[in-house]
Amino acid sequence: MASSPRFNRGIILAEQGSHVTISELVRVHACPVRFYYEKDEPVSESDRYAVCKQISYHLGRPLEADTIWDEVLTVRPKTDPALREFLDICIASCTKHEWKVAAQTDVTVVSKKHGIAGMIDRVAEDGTFSIVRAAGALPFGTYAADRLRIAGIAFCLEEMTGEEVAGGHVEYIPDGISRYHTVQPRDRRQLLTTLHKLRAIHRGEAPTHPLNAPCHRCKYRERCEESGGHRLSELL
Q1: Domain containing 142: what range?
Q2: Which of 130, 134, 147, 215 could form a disulfide with 48 if both were Cys (CB 3.0 to 4.6 A apart)?
Q3: Which residues of the chain register pLDDT less than 50?
Q4: Half-sphere exposure of 56 (CA within 13 A, CB side)
């Protein structure tokens, strides 16, 4: 297994420019049709993610619930007060395990070759990296979306550092679980395939939904079913 890339403390954050984001790739992978309908709408983080993200800054140190909640409200003053209990649940889960303290947080990474950009949530002293999730963990392994995120970051880091990147950690804060994912060739293939789909959408080509698209909970289901066989640009 290749060693983890080292991060200089004085790293200069790369400009994203016209790069597509790893988050966009994840959305396209879930359903390119839904992404098309929503591509011009602003995307905001959920209150749950805001809570988990703020907890992540304190991992490896004592988790003081009141302090972290005050920080959440400073960042997002309109956070649902009911999530104070959610924060307590997350902290109770996280205190059951040991965590590496972050040497750096929110590190921007870019691949000029592939035209993608993303952000690493936490980087440890030993150079290992993590992304933070507000979802509960699977019984085993990681979600497909998270494997795609790790692969995208690996693409960027390999170009930025010149070193092979074996994988990264996914931190499921509500369950207090950190899972390491080793990037597989299938992850890299999936990332490239999704990138081609995203570029095709930007060219105006009509996307088709995957067989396992989450249609049952999609607000565009009826609209999507009516658009079969046509360019979406002709229907909008």
Answers
A1: 20-202
A2: 134
A3: 1-3, 8-17, 229-236
A4: 30
